[in-house]
């Protein structure tokens, strides 16, 4: 029986139809940045507008710095100052709102305040008196647990004589062992067998040390807000 299949051989009769198009690499795809860029510009413009609106609505503007910021704790500050306005974000955008030169400052002498916007800082716009603002932030301090990487400002050591593990359940034995403690269970209680250096002054806190201090309820850092300078009715004042 003859084989009815026909073979197409290059150079002999019909040329085979070959597709030369290849799948386009994702690397070659062009991504439009127009929307992203426009959104970024809109956010900057919005921040600038809000800062300038605050200058029209409030009599005073303060630059404040902060250490060991905790969002949950700062929410309490916002509640205490619900009649005022806080701004925290890109310093350059806030500087743009205030102005850096005499010819572009939004109000007289705001350029001096603008130049203090460096590092971990923010703005507070308020109608409250100078005395009330100073008193509140001078007394504001919230203790909290240190995060990994924070430089310890004190030595912390667990001493067996103080029985630091007395109130912990024996179910935490393995956890404390993994965190470096030499301990045993005795009469249904955890007993520390030797002194343990939790952290050392001037040294960065490790993830294990941070976890241990949290379990032991040993807050090592203070979340503080310090006033840097103030602008009121066109007058600038250093506060540090």
Give a concise summary.
Component of the ribosome assembly machinery. Nuclear paralog of the ribosomal protein P0, it binds pre-60S subunits at an early stage of assembly in the nucleolus, and is replaced by P0 in cytoplasmic pre-60S subunits and mature 80S ribosomes. The protein is α+β, with helices and mostly antiparallel strands.
What does this structure look like?
30% of the residues lie in helices and 21% in strands. The chain is α+β, with helices and mostly antiparallel strands and 240 residues long. The protein folds into two domains: 42-143 and 222-238, Alpha-Beta Plaits (2-Layer Sandwich); 156-218, Ribosomal protein L10, N-terminal fragment, domain II (Molybdopterin biosynthesis moea protein, domain 2), CATH 3.90.105.20. The longest helix is centred in the N-terminal third of the chain and has 24 residues, at 34-57. Residues 1-20 have low confidence and may be disordered.
């Amino acid at each position: 029986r003859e084989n009815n299949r026909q073979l197409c051989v290059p150079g002999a009769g019909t040329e085979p139809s070959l597709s030369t198009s290849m799948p386009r690499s994702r690397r070659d795809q062009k991504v439009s940045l127009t929307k992203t860029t426009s959104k970024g510009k809109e956010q900057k413009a919005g921040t600038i507008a809000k800062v300038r609106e605050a200058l029209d609505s409030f009599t005073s503007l303060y630059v404040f710095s902060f250490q060991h910021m905790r969002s949950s704790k700062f929410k309490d500050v916002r509640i205490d100052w619900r009649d005022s306005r806080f701004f925290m974000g890109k310093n350059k955008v806030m500087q743009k709102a205030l102005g850096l030169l005499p010819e572009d400052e939004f109000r007289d002498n705001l350029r001096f305040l603008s130049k203090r916007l460096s590092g971990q800082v923010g703005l507070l716009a308020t109608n409250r008196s100078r005395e009330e603002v100073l008193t509140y932030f001078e007394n504001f301090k919230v203790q909290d647990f240190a995060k990994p990487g924070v430089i310890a400002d004190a030595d912390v050591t667990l001493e067996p004589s103080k029985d630091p593990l007395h109130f912990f359940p024996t179910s935490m034995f393995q956890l404390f062992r993994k965190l470096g403690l030499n301990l045993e269970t005795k009469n249904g209680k955890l007993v520390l067998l030797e002194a343990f250096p939790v952290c050392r002054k001037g040294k960065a806190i490790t993830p294990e040390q941070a976890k241990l201090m949290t379990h032991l309820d040993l807050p090592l850092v203070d979340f503080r807000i310090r006033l840097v300078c103030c602008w009121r009715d066109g007058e600038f004042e250093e506060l540090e």
